[in-house]
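May I ask for a sample protein chain and its fold as tokens?
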Amino acid sequence: MSPPAATRPDARPTRPLALAEVLLGVLLPFSLAHFVSYLYRNVNTVVYPDLVRDIGLDASGLGLLTGAYMGAFALAQLPVGMALDRYGPRRVQLPMLCVAALGGLLFARAQSFEGLLVARALIGLGVSASLMAAIKASSLWLPAHRLPLSTAVLLAVGGLGAMASTAPMQWAIDTVGWRAGFVGIAAGALAVAVLIAVRVPEHTASPSDTRLSDMVRSVGHIYCNGAFWRAAACTLMANGAYMAIQGLWLGPWLRDVGHLSRGDAAQVLFWGAAGMVAGSLAWGGLTDRLQRHRVRPVTVCGLGMLAFMVCQGLMLLPQSPGSATVLAVALSVTGTACAMNYAIVAQTLPPQLTGRASTSFNLLIFLAAFGLQWGLGGVIGQWTPASDGSYPQAAYRAAWCLALVLQLPGALLWLGQRPWQRAARHTPAHHETLA
């Protein structure tokens, strides 16, 4: 006999939660996990001079080290998606954050490139559920039409993590050193795990009795779904380029091409991350508002993607410190529009597949980001650095051109979907029409 609902570990509170309680008691703790994820992801764009000095990394090694986060993150996506749909976001997020904390501690103690590489991969594994768990929680606690807006809020909180990885992290490095800084991030990951354990209730829909074999089969069906690919392929490489550039190569570009000092570059990255927060909220709010006028979310997402590509094109030109600052912030603002596609992809499939659909998409994005982050470093590394470790503008121009060429097919696919056509006034109960 099943235990009473009040005593089951997956039981929902006896009274329904108000919207404010959902936001503060459910989505905020999960979004803080995404904050930690972004802090870990982007911190190397500030700490890279210390890694070059202490470990002796070149551009290719730095790209591989930073990309190890992306690679481990990507490989974990399908198991994470199945676990989210089977066990719920709370039960998955807790142990994963502990792994992220362990990776941070090991990174702080590593004395070799190999040690840093293993630790960085553990960090990527540990935070691999952060955004997807938050999206899964949103799909459980909020109505479907609020997913684009809730995703924007989650991404905005992640942007705060990106902000923390810039000037505040630079201050921490100057004060206590980069190793102690990583210890602090690991402590933050553990603190968020405790908050989720204490504050977040289980949802009655979280656990699933679906067999693992059926879940694996369903992932195969997702990758054979035409609606999934039509939604995912448009911004796949744009999302990967955004992560690769904003998460690592924007900092070196500001120093080498924009001629900013390390401290000034950290300040620009801070304002760029602030632009990420504002951009996430603005794109999400705009999408939510325009849906009332039958403007499809994919329209707004694609326009932002085109603006993001224009910013990359302008970065090919010679730069002054002022123009480089403006472009860095603009890149951060426009690139966040591509992330709206997470919600669009999630809407292409039934709600019970949200976790698997989101992580199936995320797997593709992080594989693209891993390849681009490492590949851009390989391209830049074809040029001989100056005595101060800087690379010429030609190196970054070649890398940016590669990124743009890879993004062009997605932009053409988006145009081929005729995004200017309005959605039906009364959307039928068919998941392919929701985007």
Remarks:
- The two ends are 43 Å apart (CA to CA).
- Residues 19-433 form a domain with the Growth Hormone; Chain: A; fold (CATH 1.20.1250.20).
